[in-house]
Amino acid sequence: MTNFTKYMRLLALGITFSASMALPYVHIKFYDVIREATQATNNELGLLMTIFTGVGMLLYIPGGVLADRGSPKKLLIISLAMMAALNTIFAVHTSYVMALLIWALLAVSANMIQWPTLIKAVRDTGSKEEQGRMFGTFYGATGIFSSLIGFAGAALYSSVDDRIQGFHYMLYGQAVIAVLALIAVAMFVDDKTEYNQSVSVPEENPFKSALTVMKLPAVWMMVILIFCGYGMYIGIAYMTPYTTNVLGVSITFGAILGTIRAFGLRILTGPFSGYISDKIGSTAKILMVCFLLLIGMLFVLLRLPAGTSSTMIILLTMMFSFFGLVVYTIMFSCMEEVRIPPQYTGISVSVISLLGYLPDGIFSPLFGHWLDVYGNEGYRIIFYFLAMISLIGSIVSLLIYRRGKAMRNA
């Protein structure tokens, strides 16, 4: 596989992920509009994400079985076809009852059919020595395409005066992007690569495959690593309100910083961190250092007084976000370092994701509770909590590094 083919494949996988996440999380950008269009209450809109998360968790394991036994190209095409159809249906029938059904089907498409297959496809794109670059480039691509989809959606929405009609145009636009992603997958994502030619398809009962994976210490190391890495990624979102509410920067300035952290840094950090981790020969070593640096950044941020110069705030929050994104973009490449069997990549990703992404449903409500009860003092509690999570992440990264080194020397 040439470098051109590899990177076109990664770009195709990147736009697949970005196109698929646009509708489930559309409320982040168009909260008031979707509430108006569906005539839903705030609680009812919250229930949509509960359905998406709950159904997705139930289907992670079956999705892993599909990923290990099915055709990656066909599974991704099915998922993207569903995404295009669901965006179109929601544009035509924008009601709350329809939204309930669509968000359940989004979980089937994104969490069951696509996610384990996507990670398996990224892993199969490069050799053992290239895993950092493969995952880093993939996440960098998701940053690019998520930004482009966001800008295109905003342009379509604002192209007409009627808010609901603009929302419908945006949904049609997302459907078109899903079709473009489908075409990219059909062109550049093959089932077999030179790196998975010798990987056998599991023939045992799927339940036995799940039990086999759950007995692997490497999988549980990855669960803890992803839990900590994703937890710190969630923590990045609290930099914006911390800089505005505690450090006293303007809301506009904070929003600009937040946008740069969310998209700009992600685009650059993925490929850079992947390249460095491959050069060093250990992703876990990079992660361990980053987790420790994150602890230091948190304690420095806690000591900043109100009225701190904008330059210092930019420097520190960008450094925190940079190290957090390094962890987030390359953490899955540790699957190769701990030698998770390639034939069980799909089911392993499902188990790891089922437990490792629990912060998605735990941390935000917990942090919100602390802020409601303690006000701005809640940020101090949040940062101490994140420091503890980062410490655990550094310890498990060290264990993964030692395990990988021992297996390489065996």
From TrEMBL:
<feature type="transmembrane region" description="Helical">
    <location>
        <begin position="379"/>
        <end position="401"/>
    </location>
</feature>
<feature type="transmembrane region" description="Helical">
    <location>
        <begin position="100"/>
        <end position="122"/>
    </location>
</feature>
<keyword id="KW-0472">Membrane</keyword>
<protein>
    <recommendedName>
        <fullName>Major facilitator superfamily (MFS) profile domain-containing protein</fullName>
    </recommendedName>
</protein>
<dbReference type="Pfam" id="PF07690">
    <property type="entry name" value="MFS_1"/>
</dbReference>
<dbReference type="InterPro" id="IPR036259">
    <property type="entry name" value="MFS_trans_sf"/>
</dbReference>
<feature type="transmembrane region" description="Helical">
    <location>
        <begin position="246"/>
        <end position="265"/>
    </location>
</feature>
<keyword id="KW-0813">Transport</keyword>
<feature type="transmembrane region" description="Helical">
    <location>
        <begin position="218"/>
        <end position="240"/>
    </location>
</feature>
<feature type="transmembrane region" description="Helical">
    <location>
        <begin position="169"/>
        <end position="189"/>
    </location>
</feature>
<dbReference type="InterPro" id="IPR050171">
    <property type="entry name" value="MFS_Transporters"/>
</dbReference>
<feature type="transmembrane region" description="Helical">
    <location>
        <begin position="134"/>
        <end position="157"/>
    </location>
</feature>
<dbReference type="GO" id="GO:0022857">
    <property type="term" value="F:transmembrane transporter activity"/>
</dbReference>
<dbReference type="InterPro" id="IPR020846">
    <property type="entry name" value="MFS_dom"/>
</dbReference>
<keyword id="KW-0812">Transmembrane</keyword>
<dbReference type="InterPro" id="IPR011701">
    <property type="entry name" value="MFS"/>
</dbReference>
<feature type="transmembrane region" description="Helical">
    <location>
        <begin position="75"/>
        <end position="94"/>
    </location>
</feature>
<feature type="domain" description="Major facilitator superfamily (MFS) profile">
    <location>
        <begin position="1"/>
        <end position="405"/>
    </location>
</feature>
<feature type="transmembrane region" description="Helical">
    <location>
        <begin position="344"/>
        <end position="367"/>
    </location>
</feature>
<feature type="transmembrane region" description="Helical">
    <location>
        <begin position="286"/>
        <end position="306"/>
    </location>
</feature>
<keyword id="KW-1133">Transmembrane helix</keyword>
<keyword id="KW-1003">Cell membrane</keyword>
<dbReference type="GO" id="GO:0005886">
    <property type="term" value="C:plasma membrane"/>
</dbReference>
<feature type="transmembrane region" description="Helical">
    <location>
        <begin position="46"/>
        <end position="63"/>
    </location>
</feature>
<feature type="transmembrane region" description="Helical">
    <location>
        <begin position="312"/>
        <end position="332"/>
    </location>
</feature>
